[in-house]
Amino acid sequence: MKYGIILAAAAVLLTAGCRTSVNTVESADKAGIIQPVRDKRVMTDSSLAKRVNVTAIVERTAANGFRQIQVQYTNFRNSDQTVFVSVEWFDANGMRVTTAGGGWMQQHFMARESRHIVYTAPTPEAKDFMIKLIENPNYEYRMFN
Amino acid sequence: MKKTIPLVFAAAVLLSGCATSPTRIQAGGPTAVTTMGVDLADFKNTAGEMVKEMLVHPSVAGFRAQNGRLPVVAVGKIINRSDINVDLGQIAGRINEDLLNSGTVEILAQDAGAATANARDAFENDRKINSADKADFYLEGQIMVLEAKEGKTKEKNYTFQLRLNDRTLRTRWQRSVDIGKQKRTGGIAW
User: Fold this and answer.
1) Consecutive 10-residue runs of chain B (190 residues): their mean pLDDT?
2) Is pLDDT of A129 > 70?
3) Residue A129 contacts B where some CB pair is shorter than 8 Å
4) In the beta sheet, which residues pair with residue A83?
5) What pTM was estimated for this model as a whole?
6) How far is B37 from chain A (nearest CA, A)?
């Protein structure tokens, strides 16, 4: 029994030693003037929210009126995480603006990684958005934007 | 009789366990089949995001202000240089749809995947074989693949690239997205 516990502890330590996480360095004094977006959240999967979540959203509007948002996702865990992400867009009346592409996109985040992904509205009329996240059991697939 | 009822019940449970009935899923969602190859949904979603990026590029976004009209885009071929067999017509169709529904460009080509639609030739040489000579921009793309193998782990990286050329044959916008898939085989490496 004693040996079993020791072996299990050794296995955990060995496995933990193999993990690699992302270190980052960034400019402390920002040159750009960012426009942060206030958000409203509904969390139905608290486990997912603790692993990967949206940590910041900034926006800009292109010359032809298309709204663009940049979403910062953060992986809070010491292991790689893969999630499905979908962004829906709505017009000024709250009606959904449909698109042919841009459905559920699989995203792979390395351990403790923060990544910024830019989404563009499908039409200049699309002003509001909803970001959906769902966990994904298939962790063998990565997309690099 | 007493013994028969539990046996029938057990048989029913066993049989129901074996039965599989088709279920409706959200196409391309988390429950969709993920294969080692890249699926059509991967390209469809990627193309959708890339097209939206293209629409906000200054060469397209500022066209109306400069010329007083919407830019006309000819959607050309997407060349498949990879090992996968995907319906390029479907990808081109989605691109057309997103471009058209944006309301910020006009579209000429109907099917970029059609082998007979030599739109690029018409665009570049101003030939009247189709309407591509009337376009302000020509959109084309390609799909490429890189493979790597280490022991029992096999990896495939697909690159989906779109380019937008103008009438002076200069590329005004280009975007590549890599889609990587990795698989670890059990007993035998392949």
Assistant:
1) 66 58 62 59 82 93 92 89 83 87 83 51 59 79 88 84 92 90 56
2) yes
3) no
4) A107, A135
5) 0.74
6) 10
A60 reaches B (C-beta below 8 A): no
Which one is the CATH code of B36-179: 3.40.50.10610, 1.20.59.10, 2.60.120.760, 3.20.20.70? 3.40.50.10610
Nearest Cα residue to A87 out of A107, A63, A114, A65 = A107
Q: Which domains does chain A have, with CATH numbers?
A: 36-145 (2.60.40.3230)
By the 8 A CB rule, do B112 and B94 touch?
Answer: no
With an 8 Å Cβ cutoff, is B38 touching chain A?
no
Tokens of residue B89, six digits: 């017509």
The backbone torsions φ and ψ at residue B152, rounded to the nearest 5 degrees and listed phi first, read: -95, 5
Domain boundary assignment for chain B: 36-179
Place of tokens 């996109």: A105
